[in-house]
UniProtKB/TrEMBL annotation:
GO terms for molecular function: 8-hydroxy-2'-deoxyguanosine DNA binding; DEAD/H-box RNA helicase binding; G-rich single-stranded DNA binding; G-rich strand telomeric DNA binding; telomerase inhibitor activity; telomeric D-loop binding. Residues 120-250 form the Telomeric single stranded DNA binding POT1/Cdc13 domain. Keywords: Chromosome, DNA-binding, Nucleus, Telomere. The gene is POT1. Belongs to the telombin family. This is Protection of telomeres protein 1. One of its GO terms (cellular component) is nuclear telomere cap complex. CDD domains: hPOT1_OB1_like, hPOT1_OB2, Pot1C. GO terms for biological process: establishment of protein localization to telomere; negative regulation of telomere maintenance via telomerase; positive regulation of DNA strand elongation; positive regulation of telomere maintenance via telomerase; positive regulation of telomeric D-loop disassembly; regulation of double-strand break repair via nonhomologous end joining; regulation of telomere maintenance via telomerase; telomere assembly. It comes from Monodelphis domestica. SUPFAM superfamilies: Nucleic acid-binding proteins. InterPro entries: NA-bd_OB-fold (IPR012340), POT1 (IPR028389), POT1_C_insert (IPR048953), POT1PC (IPR032042), Telomer_end-bd_POT1/Cdc13 (IPR011564). Pfam families: POT1, POT1_C_insert, POT1PC. It comes from the Eukaryota. It is found in: Chromosome, Telomere; Nucleus.
Length: 746
DNA sequence: GATTAGGGTTTG
């Protein structure tokens, strides 16, 4: 027998190697030497196909890589097998197999192939050009999808205890060989991953013989590998590695916010939904409708997508039974084919599902907000669908939950069960008032008091008769409010002189910036102890010059995201782009002594999406070198920056008037709120569609159009009365305070 | 044998 297979368990051969054998390392091998009774060991990194030489002798060539622990550099040798030995070795030797090989010059050479013993490289020690085995916790993944080439593709980013990240590009003609990842935090083991360089970073790529195991990342669940491979090694060491990674991932990889129940969704967002498919229908060539549920009721009814009855697949009775709990998802483009193949009743996870609230509905349909659900085309953000197996721990939990749902609770009325399953009726007003909604409207307040709960409720009629100043607790309904266009309610308020002003329009800001852009930056004011400066010249724009001053922290430049920059001559769009990358941007201009802020009609600081303005009347401007007082703490908060620059910052506030009615009388009440009342920061709403939609939704709940005032929710509020004296007369005004919108409405 | 894609900019 020329070939001898020795099984090895946890590094100990079951058959003892002959004691006469002596190990030699690769680099001591020399031509012409006798290596009888010597052996080498290493990992098979490549196997060529078994072929025949011209004389008919069978021939096998393999590439063997020395164990890295002995030599930091990788050294490989070719090993050539002939005849029977070649044939037998071809059967035994697999890539990644760890081989002890009794070297040449023996009449009956012995190839001792032991069961694979894999070494795993920590992710911070990967070397460009090597083929490695790695473990990692999934930080991001794209479920496998058909690439434009010949293969399926899955992008997986993993991390391990070294805190290093590795982006892996996994390709395979066979879907089964790609890792079966269900969610962030899952643990993967990759064998034979090639490490290569791309854009100054290393990445892992599948190579011949790639294989993977995936484990549930949830602590305490059984460690069972998900794999299509019938043969794989899994030792107690592997078990320990997975368990250690689970603990690490639980503390270092956040998956919160992605897995959300339908009852928790907020207007306009992306999330991963675990659900059961109740029905599906082809809508048109580029989209498929999926009707799904997760046992919870969304805060607003789902839109109802129209489709041909003939294209519907599912149990119509079941759909009717669950109609208040199911949502309609439109699935587009590259996801369509897979969506069509889904079986009704199966459990799905839909990644990066987009929901948005629509308050404007098509003609002839009641103007009632509803939620749209889209799975857009493409694979950005891991968009896609995966079928979860019945034994998946999340599915098991979902099944238990679905079984426990009391469907009667969600029925509109007894009559609804008698209604025909009518899909042509896209909206019906009853859909939107379930008994529990009504109850809530009638019993509870849509607002919550944050203090003074000892006060008793005073009727509005009584308040109207009294002198100011006073404080009252009231219970009333919102009959009307102004402005109706909510963005018009955002103003700038000076806490010092109490003036209110409009938020400058973008176009005006752009004009002011353009005016200053024509001024010349002073080279004398560049590169000081406070900042390093760079001059950029724009192309094709009459060589416009932009100077960026990077503020240092104690003489040292910080990471981009921690750095405050000063900009001379930037356009609005450029400042906007820079504000996304840097900690903050201050538009400045050169003056005689130092850089100074521009006119206060433009923001003195842009941080992310928030534009900070200063009060023209109250500010006493100081120059940029005054920022050096903040440098040591690097406390680039708007308040600190404003203070250092002598600016009194303006506060963004919602200013609205509410007409409140409690049946005894009506009262005009002002709301001036920074972020407490709506739990939405006034400073961010102008730059956020999501927040605007959220606020629209809240106002819709408080003052639902098309309903009688009896159906409006009650608001419990604190108000204070105060006197306003103008030239002619004295007037009593009222203002809401210490009141917030109830959390379940937000 | 190379290609595929290479997260971060989602939107019917």
């Amino acid at each position: 027998m020329p070939v001898h297979l020795v099984k090895e368990v946890n590094g100990v051969p079951e058959v003892q190697l002959p004691s006469c054998l002596e190990e030699v390392d690769f680099r001591t091998l020399q031509l012409g030497c006798d290596y009888t009774n010597k052996f080498i060991q290493g990992t098979v990194s490549l196997i060529y196909s078994l072929t025949q030489l011209g004389d008919g002798t069978t021939f096998l060539k393999i590439l063997m890589q020395e164990r890295e622990k002995f030599h930091p550099e990788i050294s490989t040798i070719h090993i050539l097998f002939f005849g029977d030995l070649a044939e037998q070795c071809a059967k035994i030797v697999r890539q990644g197999v760890y081989v002890k090989y009794n070297t040449v010059n023996s009449e009956e050479p012995v190839c001792l192939s032991v069961t694979p013993k894999y070494t795993y490289t920590p992710l911070n020690q990967l070397k460009h050009g090597s083929i490695v085995n790695v473990y990692g916790a999934v930080k991001f993944f794209k479920p496998p999808y058909q690439s434009r080439g010949t293969d399926y593709c899955s992008v997986v980013i993993i991390m391990d205890q070294s805190n290093a990240k590795l982006t892996c590009m996994l390709f395979s003609v066979n879907l089964d060989t790609l890792p079966v990842i269900y969610k962030i935090g899952d643990i993967v083991r990759f064998h034979r991953l090639k490490i290569q360089q791309y854009k100054n970073e290393i990445q892992g790529v599948t190579t011949v013989g790639f294989s993977s195991l995936t484990f549930e990342g949830t602590l305490g669940t059984p460690v069972i590998p998900r794999t299509s491979s019938k043969i794989y090694t899994f030792t107690t060491d592997d078990q320990k590695t997975v368990e250690a990674l689970r603990i690490w991932a639980a503390n270092h990889i956040s998956s919160s916010g992605t897995l959300i129940k339908l009852s928790d969704i907020k207007a306009m967002q992306y999330f991963d939904l675990t659900c059961q498919l109740v029905g599906k229908a082809e809508v048109d060539g580029s989209s498929v409708l999926l009707k799904v549920w997760d046992g919870t009721k969304p805060p607003f009814p789902s839109w109802k997508v129209l489709f041909e009855d003939s294209s519907f697949e599912g149990d119509a009775g079941r759909v009717t039974q669950l109609q208040n709990l199911t949502i309609d998802i439109l699935v587009y483009d590259n996801h369509v084919a897979f969506a069509k193949s889904l079986k009704v009743g199966s459990f799905l996870r839909i990644y990066s599902l987009h929901t948005k609230i629509q308050t404007v509905t098509p003609k002839k349909q009641p103007n009632i907000p509803h939620l749209e659900f889209h799975l857009h085309g493409g694979t950005c953000y891991g968009r896609g669908i995966k079928v979860l197996p019945e034994n998946n721990c999340d599915v098991e939990e979902l099944k238990r939950f679905l079984d426990s749902v009391d469907l009667d609770e969600y029925q509109l009325s007894k009559n609804i069960c008698d209604l025909e399953f009518d899909r042509s009726n896209s909206f019906s007003p009853q859909d939107f008032v379930s008994p529990c909604d009504l109850e809530r409207c009638q019993q509870l307040s849509a607002t919550v008091l944050t203090d003074h709960q000892y006060l008793e409720t005073t009727p509005l009629s009584a308040i109207l008769k009294r002198e100011a100043p006073q404080q009252y607790r009231i219970r009333a309904k919102l009959r009307n409010y102004e402005p109706q266009k909510l963005y018009q309610s955002v103003k700038l308020h000076c806490p010092q002189c109490h003036s209110l002003q409009e938020v400058p329009h973008e176009n005006d800001t752009e004009l002011v910036l353009q005016e200053f852009a024509t001024e010349h930056p002073d080279p004398k004011l560049q590169n000081t102890s406070l900042y390093n400066s760079e001059v950029w010249t724009t192309q094709n724009q009459q060589e416009r010059k932009i100077v960026i001053h990077f503020v240092k922290n104690d003489g040292i430049l910080q990471a981009v995201e921690d750095t405050l920059i000063l900009i001379e001559g930037g356009k609005l769009s450029e400042i906007y782009q820079l504000s996304k990358k840097f900690k903050g941007v201050i538009p400045v201009k050169s003056s005689q002594e130092d850089l100074i802020v521009l006119d206060l009609t433009v923001p003195f600081l842009i941080q992310g999406k928030t534009w900070h303005y200063g009060c023209k009347q109250c500010s006493k401007l100081k120059t940029m070198q005054n920022l050096s007082s903040l440098v040591k703490e690097a406390s680039w908060t708007p308040t600190c920056i404003a203070q250092a620059l002598g600016i009194v910052p303006l506060q963004y506030v919602f200013v609205m008037t509410f007409i409140l009615d409690d049946g005894t009388g009506t009262l005009k009440v002002y709301l001036m709120d920074h972020e407490n009342f709506f739990q939405i920061p006034a400073s961010e709403i102008l730059n956020s569609d999501d927040l605007q939609k959220n606020m629209e939704m809240i106002m819709y709940m408080l003052c639902p159009p098309g309903k009688k005032i009896g159906e409006y929710p009650w608001l419990e509020c604190f108000i204070k009365s105060y006197n306003i004296r103008n030239e002619v007369e004295q007037e009593i005004c009222y203002r809401i305070f210490d009141t917030v919108i109830a959390e379940d409405l937000i």
